[in-house]
Structure formats: structure tokens, C-alpha cells
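ok so i was messing around last nite and threw this chain in just to see what happens. nothing serious, just curious
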Amino acid sequence: MITVHSGDLHHIKRSGPLSQSRRGKSWGNGPMPRSDDRREKMNTRSTGRLRMVAAMSALLSLTCATGASAQMQRPDDGWYVRLGTLGFVAPEYEGSDQYKVRPVPDIEITYDRFFLSRQGLGANLISTDSLTLGASVAFDGGRKSRKDKALTGYRNVGDTAVGHIFAEYTIDRLMLSADVGTDLLGDGHKGTEATLSATWMFNPVGRTLLMVGPSLTWASNDYMDSFFSTTIDRLDQTKIAPGSRTGYDADAGFKNVGLTAIMIHPLDKNWSITGLAGYSRLLGDAADSPFVKDNGSRDQFMGGLGLSYTF
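result:
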């Protein structure tokens, strides 16, 4: 729902489990809460993928999609601050078969119902023990044609701000999520993405938290056109490369399906290790794009390992 675009946190923040970090409904410093004490824990954490953003990520999209975090006890003053970094590997762009490793900052600051994290600046407008509805605004880094020779001759997808509305419903250890993000400025892909995801949370060993779940992403015509079409209007007339293909016009539809796993292991009350892995398969017109079919891969992988400090 894994917000930088494609090659960065775009993959993370749209993956299902990763969307947790902005909403604050995951547990990592002890066993899964019982149903009779989960209300108290949820009310003390009001923010936090992905894709997921994920991440959500995350998968991507992968995607959204980068990251979950160990949820330590929140201070009495209502503030929660987590700082860290991730070593993250993901495709150069969405659909690429070339991968790049890069450091990614892992930052989450929350107060009451407001949050600032990799998923942007936002608020949980409605928050109960089982239902959360909210909105956020995040930076989207678009896609630069210099990322890969397969993109040479095509126009960049510009930077923009993406507005998100999201909903989450929790049933015991299962979280069902929906996220819709759209280009607010019209400077980037000018489109909309919608992601549905499910996340299962449990403690396989001791205090270690594992979150696993699938996600499905739909994208609008403008979004698909920006990232997967090779029509003449997508060419950069100042950088047309010999042999640049034109004529493929991607339409709206389901863009990808993914599976993401996130592991959080607290080292003590402040330090924690986060590991994540995800897979996404491009679908429909996205998978048939020359950027993917001829020069990339519909199978997209991502992974990361990081350390964070909570205070």
C-alpha cells in the first residue's frame, strides 16, 4: 500500500502489512494483546506501510512500501518517536529487472491522532478499538528516465504530493485495510491507486512479531499511462533514443498482486530490529508494457533490514 516512488518506498508503502506503521495497530514488545486489553493499547497509539504502503506496500506496489516498527510503550505525554534506518533493496523502477540497494530513513513521530512518517503527514480522523479512518498527504518522487536505459527517450514522471484516505478494520489478529491515493498537484502521474490488503499478526517466538499478508492494487488510466504507456506523447522530444518504441497504451485496471512479510524483534525497551521481504506480480496492462515485457520483469521482489530506536 513498503514515499518515494517505484524504486524506493513506492514499493513498500503499498504493501499490505507495511501500511500498519502510519496507523499504529501492530504489536512488537510482547505477546499479542488479548481482546480485553487490546482497546487500551490501541487507544495509546494513534498512528504509525507501507504499503504500503507497504510499502503497502511495498508490496510495494511494494507498497507502499516500507515499514513496520516495534510498538514500544508510549510515554504518558502522548508523544511517540522512532528513529532508525533500513538497508533496502528493490527494483530500479516498477517493472524493472535491475535492482538497487539503498539506505532508507525510518522515521515515525506521532502525537494523539496525528502522525508524521515515511507515509507522510496525516491524522486518524476516527479511531476505535476495531475501526480506523484517516487521511494523509505524502511526497511521491515519480520516476526519472535516467534510472534505467529502458526508459531512455521517455519523459520523466514528475514529483508530486499524493493525498490518501484509508480505512482499517481489526478482528483479533487480522487487519483488513483499504487505501486510496491520488495525485493532488497534477505534477506527477496525475492518477489514482487503490489498494486492498489483509494482514495477519502473531508472535512466532517470544516477543518477536511477524506480520504477513496479501495485497491487490488497482490503478487509474492516468497512472497506468504515466508509468507503462509508450505512446508518442510519452516521448521526451529532446532525448529520443534510436529504436524507442511507441504505440503501447496502458489502460486502467488491476496493476499488481503481492505478498509481504515483516518481522520485528525488540532488543530491549528502546532498540528493535526490523526485517522485511516482499513479492509482487504485475498484472494486465502493466505486465504487458514494453518496459516490463521486453526490458524488465513482471515479478518484483524487495527486502530490507534495519535498526530503530524508540523514545
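not much to say yet. The first helix runs from residue 6 to 10.
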